[in-house]
Amino acid sequence: MRIAYQGVTGAYSEAAALQFNPSADPLPRRSFDDVFAAVERREATHGILPIENTIGGTIHRNYDLMLEHELPIVAEVKRAIVHNLIVCEGTQLDDVRKVYSHPQGLQQCDRFLRTLADVEIVATYDTAGSAQMIKEQNLTDSAAIASERAASVFGLRVIRTAIQDVADNFTRFLVVGREAAPLGPPDKTTIVFTVPNEAGALFKALSVFALRDIDLTKLESRPIPNRPFEYLFYADLAANREEFRCARALMHLAEFAPSLRTLGSYPAWKDAPRSEPAGGPEPGP
Q: Can you give the pTM of this predicted structure?
């Protein structure tokens, strides 16, 4: 399995790809558009894309790209994101005059960055790419926000660890492929639909799931291109689209939704179970 990802070696997307499949061959690409192109041109079997973060919110560009391309979602990955401030060897915090990172990385570390006086914040295309730039250009007055692995890969030094605003910082990634076959038993479905511009239209759309006890784990609106102030709705359903109740719900929705598309039905990411203390679980009160 070759998985295309946005960034360079040491990027969080690369780590997510290897978390999903430790034996995968990660393929770096400069942009999210390039990730889709790599899969479509068969340079990679799959692509992995960040879709939402617990601090920064949704990565809207990837929702738009999923609509532009015919690459179904086949899996998801959730990964803890730990941001670090990394510098060239010998650089101290007081020496730093510029901090580079991807806009999401900067956003997720906003509180820490506001504690730095007289420091310019510069957005780049990638977290690990920022670390690579600092190393290659020997920017001794600069720092990057990136992973600990990026620091190791490029021979840099971590001077502050876990600088994200919230300790429990997670990003959800989607894995896309050329074939619709999910990479595991599917129990989650992502759809995108529109509703008529009339009173109660969205309520009616969502009721088809409520009536069948289907949980909506996410609902996101995005502007429709070239149609000002009209919106698409992306929804994650906690059900396999082939399951009878989900199939009926989608048929019901299609009766009054001007457009409806299933972007994929796939296995939801399962977190590893927490280990219990020796002797089993603690007794209740």
A: 0.89
